[in-house]
Amino acid sequence: MNEFLTQYAFLIVPIVKIAILVFIVLTVDAYLTWIERKVIAHIQARWGPHRVGPHGLLQPLADGVKFIFKEDPMPAGVDKVAYFLAPFITLMLALTSLAVIPFGPQRFTVFGYQTGIGIADVNISLLVLFAITALSVYGVALAGWASNSKYSLLGGLRSSAQMISYELALTLSVVGVLLIAGDFSLREIVDHQGSAHGLLSWNIFPQIIGFLCFFIAAIAETNRVPFDLPEAESELVAGFHTEYASMKFAMFFIAEYTSMITVSCLATIMFFGGWLSPFPASWTFTHYLPSVLLIPFGLWVIFDGIRYENLFGRMVLPVVGAVLTLIGVGLVLFPPVNDAIQGIFWFLAKVFTFLFVYVWMRGTLPRFRYDQLMSFGWKFLLPVSIANVILTSAVILWRMH
Amino acid sequence: MSAELVIFFVLAVIAVLGAVSLIIQRHPIHSALSLIVVMVALAGLYLLMGAEFVAAVQIIVYGGAIMVLFIFVIMLLNAGEEERTNFSKLALYAGIPMAVAVTGLIAAALVNSTRATSLPAAGAAGTLTSTRTLSNLLFTDFVYPFELTSFLILVAILGAIVLAQREN
User: Fold this and answer.
1) In terms of pTM, does the model score above 0.90?
2) Which domain covers residue A153, as residue numbers?
């Protein structure tokens, strides 16, 4: 058995990792919808989901069950192949793009197979991501065309035009980072930002223009507010997915949230030092930050739970709080474990900050008009990112001499 | 059979099936989709040969940009299903012998090239040519062809803009 594992480790280890990652990502996607609804609700002085489970925490589960059991009618005159293919292409590409992202610094050996946190450590991971982004236009374009509906077709064409336009700015905005790091590998890009000074050596400072261009273009690529014209409900009903229902509709949304996660990971890795701590390496006391956050939060959840309005909440919330508190205490008691999770802690903290910014923007900003969107992309974002490339290369050249 | 060979045959079969489907599909969109399958399978073959940069660019440029344009044009023209016509006489009497001849020629060239030992061996499967090596070559030894190509593409872009602006 052990020999078999050693021989086929190159096949088994990635498959297991893929299964774990897909499970985690789908769960995070589900709870991202909860966070989004809750945060927007509080921005707009509402309660948000509150009925299903304590604080509406089981709402994503209820939504999932609803999507599975809903009727899935197919409109007349659709192009069957493209109609079925479109949601699958969209979801598949969104999930594939996560495969090249490294989530933490550790490398370890399982059954003689060397691997890291993250599925594939490719030399050209950034190019692979752009290749996947380039293909993801098809999902939207095909969905819009195949549905045999005017709204869908207009939404699909609009969306693909938007994605193609902003793809240019997206690609050009990261060239500055590539010039600094001199490598396409995301792991190399993070390692290049490491130094004893903590956050001062991150790419965000020399590449602030690049970061702004990247983040704006990335929001447009993921079709989020203020660039959510593809699903402008006041003019296009729901854009390219008007005619989709049930699980196929859900697949478009899982894909959208997954690409939000990918973009947040990418912004973290390229501009904010990935898994590196923002504090200087000599400040070892900052290693207790995960516990400092977890223990008070866990205690607060216990306190909130014992006075919750219904019995189910009074039973579940204190247990969740106790688990969180115990994890926090455990991290203090076992320093090796605490040191090991530092990288992942910072990575996740940064990624969730970006996800929060996404949601925050949805609660704050109005939608662009179509001509504003196009002229902003072509006449402002693209020239600025080209100028950033020229500026960065000039500085690098000047430093070399 | 090694893993590389298995992957090669899988990708080769996908590419050939995609190419055949490109021709026999009756709807232009389906033909365009088949062409995308061919492009992606070819990118996989490039990757197998160790040309990772070329593989990624193949998908970004051909699979992404160019084919999106194809699909866009087909959608905007609202092209419907094509009708099948009778088999053309010219295709029957001139096309089939030509196809056989070309296939034979390529096969003969391949057989000859495997026999000859003087040919420079391509990179062994599994070894990757790094992007840095590629770009060093591109910007030192091949800088003139590279710049000339960029210039040609710029001229093509200008030409497209001029053609589009003529009507106004």
Assistant:
1) no
2) 2-282+334-400
Tens place of pLDDT per residue across chain B (168 aa)? 677 888 889 999 999 999 999 888 888 888 888 999 999 999 998 888 878 888 888 888 888 888 888 888 888 777 777 777 776 777 778 888 898 999 999 998 888 876 655 444 444 444 566 777 888 888 888 899 999 999 999 999 999 888 888 766
All residues of chain A having their beta carbon less than 8 Å from the beta carbon of residue B132 are: 182-183
Asked if A145 lies within 8 A of B75 by C-beta distance, the reply is: yes
Q: Does A344 touch chain B (CB under 8 A)?
A: no
Tell me the fold of B1-82.
Four Helix Bundle (Hemerythrin (Met), subunit A) (1.20.120)
Q: Which own/partner contact pairs does A329-338 have at CB distance under 8 Å and 24+ positions apart?
A: A329/A291, A329/A295, A331/A288, A331/A290, A331/A291, A331/A294, A332/A288, A332/A291, A335/A287, A338/A287, A338/A288, A338/A290, A338/A291
- Distance, in Å, from the CA atom of A245 to the CA atom of A198, rounded to the nearest integer, reads 48
Q: Within a domain: residue A241?
A: yes
| Assembly ipTM | 0.78
